[in-house]
Amino acid sequence: MARSPTGSVSPSPQARPPAAAPRGAEPADESTSITSPRSLRQLSIFFLGATCLMASTAITRRAVRRRLLRVAPKYYEPNTNPHEHFSPAMDAIQALNLATMNVFSFGIMMVGGALWAVDISSLGEMQTALRGRLGYESFDKPDRVAPEAHSSLEEIIIDKRKEAAGKHDTEKPR
């Protein structure tokens, strides 16, 4: 703290808090942080998949436990003739449903993790990255094709047609 000539105490330049950054701009070191808003938005898909996986695992465990308790005979009942109606179709449908839930939730979690790992947070970014790698920006623009490529292709086609016509003329009909 330094004293001003008027006698009041003013804070020293080192003690003042730094000026706040503009609201929309993120500092460079925060943009790569795991707690940045962009990273948290990307990780939300991963956490959604992890939550679905935990829920589907709990449902599967509950279904398996319920089936085991239903199949096990009571203490004083004979185990030679179970009283349960056995339906292979219903068991297969239940197993398919549980497996589908588990696989889809695991897939959502893996897709979310992959999107976070490659730093893609929206569908537009994913389309831009994919089209850039596949070369789609030059795919639908015929002006970018070199004219010599067209002429050489035309020459090859014309030569092949001449060869094919020459072979047909030299062959004798039987």
Automatic annotation (TrEMBL):
Quote the subcellular location field of this record. Membrane
Topological relation to the membrane, as annotated: Multi-pass membrane protein
On whether Membrane is a keyword of this UniProt record, the answer is yes
InterPro entries with a match to the protein in the record: AIM11 (IPR038814)
| Record region (Disordered) | 1-35
Which segments cross the bilayer?
43-60, 95-118
Q: Which UniProt keywords apply?
A: Membrane, Transmembrane, Transmembrane helix
Top-level taxon of origin:
Eukaryota
GO CC terms on record?
Answer: membrane; mitochondrion
UniProt key word Ion transport: no
Main localisation: membrane
Which PANTHER family does this chain map to?
ALTERED INHERITANCE OF MITOCHONDRIA PROTEIN 11
In the record, the note on similarity to other proteins reads: Belongs to the AIM11 family.
Q: What name does this protein carry?
A: Altered inheritance of mitochondria protein 11
Biological source species: Clohesyomyces aquaticus
Q: What is the lineage of its organism?
A: Eukaryota, Fungi, Dikarya, Ascomycota, Pezizomycotina
- Encoding gene (name): AIM11
